[in-house]
Design goal:
This protein has 182 residues and is α/β, with parallel strands linked by helices. 23% of the residues lie in helices and 35% in strands. Strands 1-2-6-5 form a 4-stranded antiparallel beta sheet. A 4-stranded parallel beta sheet has the order 8-9-10-11, with helices on both faces. It is globular.
């Protein structure tokens, strides 16, 4: 069957990161694309962003927040388990400019969408500023992974438990008002 999980890691409560062996998607996937998976034979099909991919290893990374039965079943899987069906890459890749200053904004589970965007934009020679948010510090995901790539990272939490207190849109407004040419 394939689609074997090689990494399963909890990022935050009810939010898991999975690295999955699926070579054809790892080779062809691009930032902005997604997969559709089915955990088991009777399961519903759900779309998830390709958060990262490693063509050399033949793996892709997805992030799943538990919000219903299918994501509950998915998040119960572990290393060595296999995902029943996995189709992709699907969707239109993000258009990637070159030689610009670009801001990527994500909040909560949306940081999983920002991660591949930051990577693709950096690879194309852009200056990348990432604004990452969450309701609380405990719910902030992928800060370390995105910080390793981006030129600058601004973190916000709604409750002020980490980074700047407030919403990601406030940080974006301040960045625009500072005169940064983005």
């Amino acid at each position: 069957m394939g689609n074997r999980i090689v990494t399963a890691k909890e990022l935050a409560p009810q939010t898991m990161l999975f690295e999955i062996e699926v070579e054809h998607i790892a080779q062809r996937g691009k930032a902005g694309q997604f997969i559709i998976l089915r955990v088991n034979d009777e399961g519903e099909r759900i779309p998830l962003t390709i958060a990262n991919r490693n063509p050399e290893k033949g793996t892709i990374t997805i992030v799943a927040q538990e919000v219903g039965k299918t994501t509950e079943l998915l998040n119960a899987l572990d290393v060595g388990d296999e995902i029943h069906d996995l189709a992709g890459p699907l969707g239109k890749p993000t258009e990637i400019p070159t030689g610009k200053t670009v801001v990527c904004v994500g909040g909560g589970i949306g940081n999983a969408v920002v991660w591949p965007q930051v990577q693709a934009l950096k690879d194309a020679g852009n200056k990348v500023i990432a604004i990452l948010g969450a309701r609380t510090k405990d719910l902030l995901i992928l800060e370390e992974e995105i910080t390793a790539i981006a030129d600058d990272v601004i973190v916000t939490t709604d409750d002020g438990s980490y980074g700047r207190k407030g919403m990601v849109t406030h940080a974006l407004d301040d960045l625009i008002e500072s005169g940064e040419k983005i």
